[in-house]
alpha-L-fucosidase
Amino acid sequence: MNKRNPVHPSTPAIKDLKTIGTGIACLLISIPFSSTAEEPVFDTTRPSLEFRNYRDKTNVPEWWTESMKTREQRVAWWKEARFGQFMHWGAYSVLGGGYEGQEMTGQYAEHIARVYKIPKKDYIEQAASKFQPEQFNADEWVLRAKNAGMQFFVITAKHHDGFAIYHSKHSDFDIEDASKWSRDPLKELSAACKKHGLKFGVYYSHAQDWYMPGNTQNNWDFPGNPATSANEKKMGNGKWYEQDTPEVKAHMIKAWDYYVNKSIPQVIELLQDYDVEFIWFDTASWMPPEYNIRVLETVRKLAPDTLVNYRIQHFYGDYEGGPDSPIVFPYKDNDWECIQSTLHSWGYNKFDEHNRRPTDYLLKMLATVVSKDGVMMINIGPKGDGTWTDGDITTYKEMETWWANNGDSIRGAGMTPLAVHNWGVVTGKDNDLYLHVFDWPADRKLRVGGLMSTPDSVVLTENNQSLSVKQKDGLLTIDVPVEPDTPYHSVIKLSFSSEPKGENRRPLEATVNNRLHVYDTPFVSDGLSYKKGKGFEAYFTNWKKPEDHVTWKVSVEKKAEYNVHVIYDLPPEGKFDDAYQITIGDQQLTGTVNYEGKIDERYINEELKLMKMDSTKSKKTVMVGDSLGTLSLEPGKYDLKLSALDGISSTELFSPRTIILEPVLK
């Protein structure tokens, strides 16, 4: 059965048609829906280049500027929740990362059709037609997420393969027709979320649909397709749609036909028929910005309260995002999101279990995100039959256990005035602070710096044990047990009679190394740019001005000496030999940027391990470091500053990662 309602001049859906000079039809159409719904109308005229230069923030549509006046209302519930469920599930889940004897080790299983160039006929036969999830239980899925602490639920309605896991009016490539399955999983999940009090959202791949004629990436079913990675590399890594060739011009028309006949109509039906409150779009860079902006315009017109993520089109979403599974996060002025998956793959991959992220790693990541006012989603990939892997079931049971004692430290919580500490991070809500202790102090003294208020109570949440404290000059010292009573990270709750006051100042430890990452301080000059936070690019760039700096506010309890080590990245080749300095009080240590890496290898190895890197060399940079000398610090408060010593003769000074202050133990 062909359910599509393609918009062409011959179809009755067209309300108005006129021809413009280029010969491209200008259409204003309505897509028919249920008789109870008002007919939505969207302009199908192929967009002009007017808004392609979206990076010029003065060149934006008026409707978008108007829509951003209500952004705070859209993000309010999302910020309060702090924690949500992400799910990749579709026809690819049937294959589980395997195809004709090939195994997707270390790869995204949801990309299997592209990786192995599977023809559509074979993909339907071996994957889509077999996607009949007889053991799927929407209530069970939603309750697992809810019990683990999640307050919203986002699942792939359509991924890049173009297969819809719901009954779509605008494509035969869906679970109803390609799979011959009568149930609608998306309807059931939407109802289950409403029943159990979760917000419901969908992932929708608006810019990729590999088996459509106007697709990107697929050159095995469509020879000569200009919208591929290979073609972009030939043109010097520019975007395919920026080329002025007959092939590109023709493909631009096919691509817009996909937006008109499938992408936008499916977005409309998701909004109207599935009570969607959040749409998570993806890979906007594969299509012209003006096409993607038209999708957003449709959402804003039909459902102005719907939350939209940043990947609809850079700069246009309701909040800032980042890459898949980042490692570290800078302080940000905007609302932002982190997405993590329990495995490396996002869709079900039976060959990826060795990449499972431990539950406590995910919980520490969640606490870190919330401590910097972010929102996090954890992803799983269910199997094609509707069941979860044993590993994911275990992870969610463990998160449920931790959440029972510590949910208040996440939901409704956020950033506090206090710094990132050597032992972990701090979240806060109302008159309470929550110390997330990742590394338990061997001397049983947990030092909290920068706290100007005195707590009325200090409690270890895992067993409700009251802890004794001492406080002097903004330093709170808590006596903790010999070891924690939990397999996950511990949380210590500090309660105050009024909103606690403090400053971003971390105490330097005198017996263990102090690791000061550049993303763990808000005191950074405006000229520096942070990267996305994957391990291979966890640094600042654009260090071009002598006045640029990264500064940490620290305190010293007792006189101590520290050996100072600096880790940074440089481009793979070039001339980089400018001098830099670390200053603290009246002391100064200097170094010269170089490729030799005059630093103990163990510090580089530790950085590699923490950043989950296999090598100091990545595609764009190489990691090196220097040992600068020794600082002798008296008790007191200091600003530790990293900056250029004089001028900068190279294209950049360097890309700093971490400063390590190693106590000199006597």
Residues 246-273 form the longest helix (28 residues). The chain has three domains: 53-231+260-409, 424-504, 514-663. The CA atoms of residues 437 and 530 lie 26 Å apart.
